[in-house]
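Let's practice the habit of predicting before peeking. Look at the sequence and jot down your guess about where helices and strands might fall. Then scroll down.
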Amino acid sequence: MHDSRHLVVGNSSYDPFAIDVAYAMGQQEDVADLISLKQFANSEFCPRFISDEQDFTAIGDKLAGRSVVIVSTSNLALSRQSLTMRTFMMARAAKENGAAEVILVEPDLFYSAQDRGPRADLGRTSFSRTERDLKKFDGQPFTAKLYAEMLKLSGVDRVFTVHNHSHSVQSTFAEIFDGKFHNLIPYDIYVDYLRNSDIVHFDADGEGLALCAPDKGARDFVEEVCKRLGLPKVKVILLDKERSGERRVSINVHGDSQWGLSDIAGHDVVLFDDMVRTGSTVVQACQVLKAARPRKTVFALTHFYASEEGRIKMASTAIDEILTLNTIPTVLNRDIQGRLRKKMVVLKIERWLARKLCTTLGLDPRQMDESLYAIDMSSKNLRWKQKIWLSEQLKLINPR
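Done guessing? Here is the structure:
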């Protein structure tokens, strides 16, 4: 399955996410054996694609005909600004050594929060911008566009990301990269886990399960997940939030929602969102849902920004369990999870991402591991404890 024309590297010396993507794509060579990420004594970064020091043939053209895939994820050792500069220089190094194509894989696309500027012509929103919205960005740059332009200038030809929330970012990157921008939506991961794990319980036709969109932005995603589940009696409840300040919102059932709060009593409810930062809105939404007396409330999200404030708020009893992906790999760190580890499960998406890359790049994915993800769950999680207990009981009943 691995094609030697495609070279997968990470933009830090040891990036387990990049290594796992490379391995899933069939690359046996260690990332550290393919590129040296050295730093001069004055702290300046200088990447070098490794070649035989005694080979003086094809100098500056060792990557001819090859595609270089740069996998970029946040980590605890380097700031996003540092990682960004590394990506620029690695892309330029690849191109100046003959690479035919440079592909950036950044599951959590950097600078997406800065997706518009202080004027109406700076950013393409899906809504009419008010004076208050324009004022939010007064004095700031339209950084998402600058980032896209600098990636392009450095030599990046194609960008992959996961579940980007911003219409403005998506349209900007699609334009600058001439359509070679891929926003991968992980519907199949969530559907697979809801169907095949014990995180929620429901009947064969979906009775007992409810999916919730916390706001208009999440509505299409939740409805598509419901459609792909293919269970006729799954309920979808739409919430609406009205923001009255930086941290103040009011949560209500949206007028378009087919189901109300009274309809989800006794159900397992999964509230979906693309990301969480402070946790204020999601906790408030789950408190509204909890008042309807569901059996369980699960918060499912793609990008987990583990701020201290967010961890404290999401420890609320309004959230029974948190399901997230490892697009920001620091979420796997137990210290980062803190007390949330008791109710958190992380789905590691490297295999799924590698399969998407192979499909887009014309590689044959049939030899790949069929599973979409690996599961990371602390032994403190109640479901983990229940599995261990059941395993021990089975040993007692059927000793070998």
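How did you do? The longest helix spans residues 80-96.
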